[in-house]
Design brief:
Blueprint lengths: L8 E7 L6 H9 L6 E8 L5 H12 L4 E5 L4 H11 L4 E4 L5 E2 L4 H10 L3 E11 L5 E4 L8 H9 L11 E4 H6 L11 H11 L1 E13 L5 H11 L2 H7 L10 H18 L3 H14 L7 H14 L2
Parallel strand pairs: 1-2, 1-4, 2-3, 6-9
Antiparallel strand pairs: 4-8, 5-9, 6-7, 6-8
Helix pairs in contact: 1-2, 5-7, 7-9, 8-10, 10-11
């Protein structure tokens, strides 16, 4: 790639206080990057040793390491910043605590060149547990119809998507940026949009090694409650009207998800309200027996 040539693929790593593992992610990219691949690392105002890590990576890799820093604004803002800086036709977003699988970029770039009309590529990944256990997860199959793809993703959970294991047409991420006002589930509106706007293809390869971490139930519950049902409107905000037919079903499902989250976190009042709202939105949720049993026990505890 000459200095004037644009790259085919931009790998973007947003990072916040991941100084200890960031070099692993960067190495996984630059150790196999072909001339048509560029890397951008966006530091979202880290307070750890990330600036020193940036200096060391720049000294090691020279111009191949492109790092920028921004005032802390959240992962969505960091991803959007990276997408704006990127020059590639395609974008791969890799979390700072994950890594690309070895020797995947040459094959990936070959596929991207062969089918430039594809808007979203889905790949497999290897899940790495804290104890070192690994398990491969092949890419989900996808139907040809956009509405069915949306149903499979939002309602039936047949399509699994995660950063590091998919490649976006950059144009789509400019059309549908990550919502920066959301600090939880902010990737769902973007995935939903990119799944429905262009051709979607599956890659028969494990693209990334995704490191799993035990989550904080309390933190997740608080973050989910802050977003609440606003996520539903955000998901459908940029989707065409022809895809809005499943919005009520998704809203009811979101209510049930928040019901379960609040119940597990011990917030019984919010759990009751979300279950009521789920029933008001779509009475058929009463037929989801696992939720109905939990709701019945909740009300019986309040009214012995």
């Amino acid at each position: 790639m000459t200095m004037s040539a644009k790259p085919l693929l931009s790998v973007i790593i947003p990072t916040y206080n991941y100084a200890g593992v960031l070099p692993r992610a960067v190495e996984s990219v630059l150790s196999q990057a072909t001339p048509e691949v560029e890397l951008w690392v966006v530091d979202d105002g880290s307070t750890d040793d990330t600036p020193a890590v940036f200096t060391a990576l720049s000294q090691r890799y020279g111009a191949a390491f492109q790092g920028v820093r921004q005032t802390n604004a959240g992962p969505s803002a960091a991803r959007n910043n990276g997408v704006k800086l990127a020059q590639g036709n395609y974008v791969l977003l890799l979390d700072a605590d994950d890594e690309l699988a070895p020797d995947v970029l040459p094959d990936l770039c070959e596929r991207l060149r062969q089918q430039p009309e594809v808007g979203l590529w889905l790949a497999g990944h290897v899940a790495v547990q804290p104890d070192g256990r690994e398990r491969g997860h092949p890419a989900s199959s996808v139907p040809g119809d956009a509405l069915q793809r949306l149903k499979d993703y939002l309602l039936d959970k047949k399509i699994a998507l995660s950063h590091g294991a998919c490649v976006f047409l950059r144009e789509l991420l400019l059309e549908r940026p990550y919502p920066e006002h959301l600090r939880h589930s902010e990737d769902i509106p973007v995935f939903a949009y990119c799944l429905t706007q262009r051709q979607v293809e599956v890659l028969d390869l494990m693209l990334a090694r995704i490191h799993k971490h035990p989550g904080s139930l309390r933190h997740n519950a608080e973050a989910a409650r802050k977003v609440g049902l606003a996520l539903v409107d955000e998901v459908f905000a940029k989707l065409p009207a022809s895809l809005h037919s499943i919005k009520p079903a998704y809203r009811a499902q979101r209510c049930l998800s928040l019901f379960r989250t609040c119940l597990l976190a011990g917030d019984q009042a919010s759990a009751r309200e979300y279950y009521r709202e789920a029933v008001r939105t779509d009475w058929r949720v009463l037929l989801k027996w696992s939720y109905t049993r939990k709701a019945a026990r909740l009300w019986l505890r309040r009214n012995p």
